[in-house]
Amino acid sequence: MAKRKLVLEDGTTFIGNAIGSERETFGEVVFNTGMTGYQEILSDPSYCDQIITFTYPLVGNYGINREDFETINPSVNGLIVKEACEYPSNFRAEESLDTFLKAKDIPGISGIDTRKLTKRIREYGTMKGMFTSVDASLEESVAELQATPLPTNQVERVSTIKPYVVPGRGERIVLVDFGMKHGILREFTSRNCHVTVVPYNTTAEEILQLKPDGIMLSNGPGNPKDVPEAIDMIQGVLGKIPFFGICLGHQLFALACGANTTKMKFGHRGSNHPVKDKATGNVYMTSQNHGYAVEDWDIDDSVLSVTQFALNDNSIEGLSHKHVPAFTVQYHPESAPGPQDSNVLFDEFLTMIKQHSRREQGTCLNVQM
Predict the structure, then answer these.
(1) Helix (H, G, I), strand (E, B) or coil at 242
(2) Which parts of the sequence bind L-glutamine (predicted)?
(3) Cα pseudo-dihedral 77, 83, 89, 90, rounded to 10
(4) What pLDDT, in 10s, does the model give residues 221-265?
(5) How far apart are alpha carbons 67 and 46 in whole angstroms?
(6) Statement: the pTM of the whole predicted model exceeds 0.90
(7) For residue 207, what pLDDT is reported?
(8) For position 335, what pLDDT does the model report?
(9) What single string gives the DSSP state of each residue in 271-338?
(10) Looking at the predicted structure, is the pLDDT value of residue 367 above 80?
């Protein structure tokens, strides 16, 4: 098996077996602690430009199937595993992990000490890395990593180009695509919603012309401050239509309401992160994938309420607006992959929409009388 080298920007080097595509790659090296769900993770647009390290030692054992994709064309830049299963065994498996990686032009490396790599990221934070040939100059590789900035246009690259409709007979939802996972669509269509998916840079005026009952802000990659168009759109629609935001949508909502976001040391990426609801005291196990967080000391408590927080590090996991129908969460209630504890948030959003509609109808009746 051909060899491949992983070089980090601090000079740390790992040599292992080449899997997937033959191309060399560059990206931010992150780790995910999920024990399953590698297909959904690899196809999650939120991982755009990143190289994913799986902490679970064996990946690929149940193969790849046609049902568990979260997007058609993955945008992840690479894969790092301890062991990649060559011969999967599962009744749904249609191809191996290596075959899939080759077909999607995703390079990977196996046979390295992923525990050592993860511990280094936890100690020093996420950092840039690249795959090279084993005989490539370490000094030149490190110099290139340190001199090359990470891209800032990830949302533009993963968002839909044109609006499209997924028809239904229920509530009319505008889903703003910042890097949407298909799991969000599945949740709305299972509730018979009529969903219009729009690009990330759709204006407030364009959204209001669609006359939606509710607006969904999707997940997505990168720094929320790199998407100022979305902040303007949220400010232009807030208070007129009920809002629900997930992950990047949560961060953009916070920025639009005057809060601030910051880059985390190594982020939250995994399938069993405990989150506590402040109102009920309930604890939910959640699926997470984010490298930025809302800063708690910058929140105007006359505008926003912190509704949920992470039990591992007390970071903000949920927000609600005090004056208009809008709430957001930092994690992924569509559960792809991960536990389904928080799927009920989609039902709460539809309840919010109905309550808002009744209030609006009552206001109209009072005006007429």
Answers:
(1) coil
(2) 46, 220, 222, 248, 251, 289, 291-292
(3) -50
(4) 999 999 999 999 999 999 999 999 999 999 999 999 999 999 999
(5) 19
(6) yes
(7) 98
(8) 86
(9) EEEEEEETTT--EEEEEEEEEEEE-GGG--TTTEEEEEEETTT--EEEEEESSSSEEEESSBTT-SSS
(10) no
| Mean pLDDT of all residues in 211-226 | 98
**Which domain CATH number covers 96?**
3.50.30.20
Of 147, 177, 200, the one marking the end of a domain is 147
The answer to whether 328 and 318 are in contact (CB under 8 A) is yes
Q: Which residues does the annotation mark as catalytic? A: 247, 332, 334
**Sole residue written with tokens 């997940």:** 219
Six-digit token string for 149: 């900035």
3-32 confidence digits (pLDDT tens): 999 999 999 999 999 999 999 999 999 999
Last residue of a domain, one of 147, 177, 192: 147
Residue found by looking up tokens 């968002």 in the block: 159
**DSSP string over 72-136:** SS----EEE-SEE-SS---TT--B-HHHHHHHTT-EEEESS-HHHHHHHHHHH--EEEEEE-TTS
Element (H, E) at 52: strand 50-54
Cβ neighbours of residue 121 closer than 8 Å, sequence gap 6 or more:
29, 30, 31, 53, 127, 266
Tokens at residue 195, please? Answer: 């969903």
Q: Are residues 341 and 216 in the same domain?
A: yes
Q: What is the pLDDT of residues 313-327, one digit of tens each?
A: 999 999 999 999 999
Sheet holding 164-166, edge to edge: 164-166, 194-198, 172-176, 214-217, 243-246, 326-329, 316-321, 304-310, 261-277, 283-294
- Are residues 187 and 143 located together in one domain of the fold? no
- The CATH number that applies at residue 192 is 3.40.50.880
Q: Is residue 164 part of a domain?
A: yes
**163: its two tokens:** 């609006």
Compute the distance between CA of residue 141 and CA of residue 129 in angstroms, rounded to an integer: 9
In this prediction, residues 185-210 reach a mean pLDDT of 98
Please check whether residue 310 is in contact with residue 268, taking contact to mean a CB–CB distance below 8 angstroms.
yes
Query: Binding site for L-glutamine, residues?
Result: 46, 220, 222, 248, 251, 289, 291-292
